[in-house]
Design goal:
about 550 residues; 4-stranded antiparallel β-sheet; 4 strands; elongated; disordered N terminus
Length: about 550
């Protein structure tokens, strides 16, 4: 079984870094089938990404580690890496990548018999995938759900999920995407028939498996392609041989069953590393011996099946082996030994629950670390926003400062071409402000500027930008306003300044302002527009005097 293609299509784009380069090399090594080198490079990439604060890149590296561990039959380690990858993708809100991680997590958790965790991961992946545009994500998620449901013994719902996944892939014209759900339907049927025979003494119906194998016939050309270094197509071929072996056995064609079984795990005969397919080959041999009543051969095969499954950490296959061993021993009247097999299974159950508890403890620790990291990140972001706001705000009046004004005006002037909409500015200067400071103190002068800032803000429209340029100079940027609209607002401002009870600050004190206006034209810059408004303001002062 498998969960996803591991496609890097949804990786976040980032600049070329050492972490990215190592991850690319790790992916290449994994594609060549070199899981050891791929894992080592991915570990370096994950560490480097964490150091530079790139959680998306770190998550991709962790997922690469998980895939390498799956190839090397290190399922417990793969589970930890896939879980952390899913956490990080969730934290940075990358749902497509999170679906990939959750599907791998569901597959590994199912193999380890952490069934509730597998089902939760697969269901979450399915929900997330529903909101994504590309059908491949829904296919992968439903395939993962089907695997998790097989592990939970819910065979009808598993078959429905896998059928839907295959149908979606077929509708999308994706022949390769149909492969895993169709093959996993065959695997699910074998598990179902084995469990129901053991628990309920129901006879095996080969017709259901044969029908599912027939649906896989169009895939044979794709799954027979040579040069598959990564092993995906090789595993598909092996699983089709596994299913064909059971179908032939259940039909009573033991010669064909043996031929198919011999093609499940050629690596075992070639002296290759142990793999879960070796355990499946022993399972097929056990089934054939069991059907022929060859108890010694069945017992020997199931023993090697259990040993191989435990060696590669595939607890689901080991559980089936213990169940078969109990049935084989009981059929021979060796009830005490059959009970011993069940005791070993119960001991494995206890060990699995203990492992699950330890995993949840690690999860709690990671979640606290992630929460602390998120809190620190939010604080840094808030501080950065606060500093940015302060850098654009006049400390005395609270109005936008000159930097803010020039940035906004520059963006509106653009490349100097004729503005699409009219744009005007008003330069505002307090008349004889030096006298106010000299006669009444800088404290009174500051109070005047604060009040004037409020009056200016009260006379402009929503979307206009009032700002303090410095000293006693203010400016208003009027968006979508010609000089006539701006002049009307300035007249309202002058009247508001004249009406204000300045005498409450100092008896007899009067404050007036002079205002210069300018409307932008093609070729204007910040300097040219301010110069024209400044010239107009000084003409206003001259006329006032």
């Amino acid at each position: 079984m498998s969960g996803t293609s591991g496609s890097p299509a949804s990786r976040p784009h980032a600049s070329a870094t050492g972490a990215e380069q190592r991850l690319a090399l790790a992916e290449e090594a994994l594609d060549r089938g070199d899981a050891g080198r791929g894992r080592a490079l991915a570990m370096l990439a994950a560490r480097a990404a964490a150091e530079v604060g790139e959680p998306g890149l770190e998550a991709e590296a962790l997922l690469c580690i998980a895939r390498a561990d799956i190839v090397a039959s290190r399922l417990r380690s793969a589970h930890e890496s896939a879980y952390r990858a899913a956490q990080l993708f969730d934290a940075i809100e990358q749902p497509a990548s999170e679906v990939r991680a959750l599907v791998w997590l569901a597959y590994v958790a199912s193999s380890l018999r952490r069934n509730e965790a597998a089902l939760a991961s697969a269901m979450l992946a399915t929900k997330l995938a529903e909101a994504l545009e590309q059908p491949c994500h829904r296919v992968d998620a439903l395939n993962g759900l089907g695997i998790a449901l097989i592990a939970n013994g819910d065979f009808e719902r598993s078959d429905a999920a896998l059928s839907r996944a295959a149908k979606l892939a077929e509708q999308a014209g994706d022949l390769a995407g149909q492969a895993w759900p169709r093959i996993n339907r065959c695997y699910g049927e074998i598990v179902r028939a084995t469990v129901e025979r053991y628990l309920y003494d129901r006879p095996v119906d080969p017709g259901r498996l044969i029908a599912r194998l027939d649906e896989c016939r169009p895939l044979e050309a794709a799954t027979a392609a040579p040069g598959d270094a990564a092993g995906g197509l090789a595993v598909q071929r092996a699983l089709l041989s596994f299913a064909a072996s059971f179908a032939a056995c259940w039909r009573g064609d033991f010669v064909a069953a043996g031929e198919h079984a011999g093609r499940i795990s050629p690596g075992a005969r070639a002296g290759g590393p142990p793999a879960w397919l070796d355990a499946l080959a022993m399972w097929a041999a056990c089934e054939s011996a069991l059907a022929q009543g060859d108890w010694p051969a069945a017992e020997a095969s199931v023993g090697r099946m259990i040993e191989g499954a435990l060696q590669v950490e595939h607890e689901q296959v080991a559980r089936t082996g213990y169940m078969l061993a109990s049935a084989i021993l009981d059929a021979q009247g060796r009830s005490r030994e059959a009970l011993g097999s069940l005791r070993l299974l119960a001991q494995r159950d206890i060990a699995i629950r203990r492992e699950s508890l330890e995993h949840h403890e690690r999860v709690a620790k990671w979640q606290l670390e992630l929460r602390d990291s998120s809190i620190r990140m939010r604080r840094l972001e808030a501080r950065s926003r606060r500093l940015e706001r302060l850098s654009l705000e006049d400390a005395l009046t609270g109005l936008p400062n000159r930097r803010h004004f020039e940035r906004e005006l520059s963006s509106l002037l653009g490349d100097g071409s004729q503005p699409a909409e009219p744009l005007s500015i008003a330069l505002i200067d307090v008349d004889r402000f030096k006298e106010i400071n000299d006669l009444h103190s800088h404290l009174i002068g500051d109070r005047v500027l604060k009040v004037l800032a409020g009056l200016i803000g009260g006379q402009v429209r929503h979307g206009d930008l009032p700002a303090r340029l410095g000293g006693d100079e203010f400016v208003v940027l009027f968006r979508r306003a010609d000089v006539a609209v701006a002049a009307a607002a300035c007249e309202r401002l002058k009247a508001a300044v004249q009406r204000h009870p300045w005498h409450e600050f100092v008896p007899g004190m009067v404050v007036t302002v002079s205002i210069g206006l300018a409307e932008s034209t093609a070729g204007d810059t910040i300097e040219s527009l301010l110069r024209r408004s400044d010239d107009d303001m000084y003409r206003a002062k001259a006329n006032r005097s």
